[in-house]
Amino acid sequence: MLIETLSVFPEMFEPVMSTSILGRARQAGIFDFRAYDLRDWTHDRHRTVDDEPYGGGQGMLMKAPPIYEAVRSIASSGPHPHVVFFTPCGAPFTQAAAERLAMQERLLFVCGRYEGIDERAYDLADERISIGDYVLTGGELAAMVVTDAVVRLLPGALGDAMSSVDESFATGDSGGLLEYAQYTRPAEFEGAAVPDILLSGDHAKVDAWRRENAIDRTCRWRPDLISSARLTDSERALAEQLIARYHGSSQQNA
Ligand code: 6GU
Question: How many domains would you assign to the chain?
Fold first, then answer.
C-alpha cells in the first residue's frame, strides 16, 4: 500500500512513520509513505495557501487552487489514489472504516489547517473523515491516527506473534464488546490480587470470566455499545442489570 499526505506541515509525519510497528512495516515494504508540502503547488512569492472567507468571519480558509493542483499532480502518476479529506465535519472514523481503507492500493490524505477549506476543494474527496467530536489545530494528527489504524491491519504488519485478525472491537470476535481485563505478574500488587479464576488453569472458567468481565466493562464504560453487541438472552438480561447499577435505570443517564 502507498499512503501519501498533503499538508502545510509535511515534517510532522516522519517521526511517527519511522517508529515502532509503522516504522518496521515501512522498512519491510508493507507500506510506503510520502508527505507532500502543499506550498510546492503555489505560484506567488509568499507561497500563499490561505485567504479570507467570503461573507466575512473569523480566521483564514485554505484556498482551493493549490489543493486542486497538488491532488491532480500527485494522482497523475501511478494507480489512482483514494482521496480522504480530514475535517471535524467528516464522518466519524471507526474500525470498520479502517478495514475499508486497508483494502485500498493507494491512499491520499489531505490535511486541512486554519479555520477550514474552501468548499470547492472537497470535490476532489472520495470521503471526509473526522476522528472524533473535538477540534484539532489541523488534520495531520488525524491522518496519523488513521494511518496507524490502517497499517496495523495490513498482512504482516504486526509480525508473527500478533495478529489483528481475531481481535475485539466493534467488528471483532467478541461481538462488539470492550476487551476483558488482563493481568500479568506479580499475582498481588499494592494489595490488589489477580482474580483467582485466572490462576486456576481451568480454561472454560477463564473464558466464562472473560466474557462476563467484557460485558461488565462495556456496561460501565461504553453502555452505548450494548444495544448493538451480540449477546445471548441471559447476557442481555445481565447487561440490563449492570447498566441500571452503573448508570441508573435510564440509558439517558449513561
Ligand atoms: Cl480530521 N481535523 C481537525 N482539525 N479536527 C478534528 C478532526 C480532524 N477530527 C476530529 N477533530
Answer: 2
